[in-house]
Amino acid sequence: MGALLRQRLRRDWLQVLLWILATVLMAYAGYAGVTQSYATHTDRVQVLSAVMANPVIMMFRGLPSGASEGQFLSFEILPWLTMLAALMSTFLAVRHTRGDEEAGRAELVAATPVGRALPTIATIIHGVAANVVLGVLVALALIGSRLDATGSWLMGATSATTGIAFLGIGLMAAQLMRTSRGANALTVWILVGTFLVNGIGNVAGTPSDDLTRITSSGLVWASPFGWAEQARPYDTDNGWPALLGLAFGLVLAIVAVALQSARDIGEGFIPARAGRVHARPALSTPHALVWRLTNGAIVGWAIGGALTGLLATKLSGLAGQISGQNPAVQQILDKIGKAGNLEETVVSVFFTMMGILAACAAVQIVARARQEEAHGTAESVLAQPVGRVRWLLDYLLVATFAIAIIVVAAMLAAYAGLAGNKDASSLAQVVTVVGLGQGLAACVFTVLTGLVFVLLPRGTVGIAWALVLLATLFGLFGPLFGLPEWTTRFSPFSVTPIVANGDVDLRGTWWLALAVAAGAAAALALMRRRELQAAG
Questions:
Q1: FRET label pair with 528: which of 71, 97, 104, 141, CA 20 to 30 Å apart?
Q2: pTM for the full model?
Q3: DSSP one-letter code for 213
């Protein structure tokens, strides 16, 4: 057991450290953002009242439990703390179970006196320990911000127990699916689904007379995110709902260990879909193969982009109503969007989120090249008349094409949302300029992932996702959390073109275009001399 745990720590220390630091940073900076942007009790009451009036906003925020600083902080960031812990845990679970089976490592370990069950048990201990460290550091960060200790420890505990709940979900997905890609996709869909279920349960709840608190409907008890929010840190400080996540995760982990003993290594309980006897003519080229391997994920990201674009124009008018009740809201939007009037700013903010989605899609596609290399399937392709530069170029091109699909889907949905809007023509210009600019920012992460893949292949997945996470924190949340303005310039998302009162400001467009061109050229040139590196 000791050797297995040391091996997992040696493989994971950087990735887990980045996830934990990002979560702790969000907790610490979140308090600064609340105190700076919503300094008075009246400001916080007005925001809560406006949010409760709109079900769409309520879907994607936390559970209102009062208007004190701690209660408002929980409303603002608890869903995102728990989501980061959940993503860290599911990826960890799949990586050390189904991922090791795909790479052949699990079979080698099982052939030793260690057996089959002990590596999974080591993964459970490793995942629980990572979440405990995350929870403790989140609590200490909040206590260091001079918040109440009881509520702070509960915030940390709910983040940790939600992560453990999704650790169990990840372990179960690894038993059901035959590939790590399928297991990760299943866990992400479960995460998104349960997040929405919790949001619907809050929307269907009953607000208090002063519009600062909601009693959720029973639907929230079907979601681990709902269990975390029902703990109500800094309000009732009710710890037992958080324990549901702990119990749920450990039960699923035990079931996963039992299921593992009932199947063969490399198999899953959900059978693989039978393939065609002969490949379609469309699969006769390397880039067609890349498209075939990634098109399902691209469709999912495009749906997310379309929803973001639709919300951008549908909610732009509502923002004017909210800001009229509380000028602090407009100040926050101005910091993030840096556009002209309020509606233009709202569209800019939502399309920044769309740019982040497009960047995530690009990272996932280019990182797929590393997975193919690690699994040995890249050798089969490169054994054909396909050079390694052409092979990497195909991944970069498909990732760029995916960005274009996501941007177009978001823009078309945004145009549809402008139907009946009296300012449709001016907002359509904003959608076009900002949408194309955010697409260019997403292309930066395409080439950055390519460069990391060429220079540090074994760190491709961890480093590429860390870059997106840091760019999101600086570009989208930096102004909200009161970080210095110069720090936001490190994020490509915050230097894209904007439209201010009808005037287009290109800002860092040419620098972004230069970075994309130079990064792509460097990655392809360096790939010419790089040898393939197996997993390990």
A1: 104
A2: 0.78
A3: B
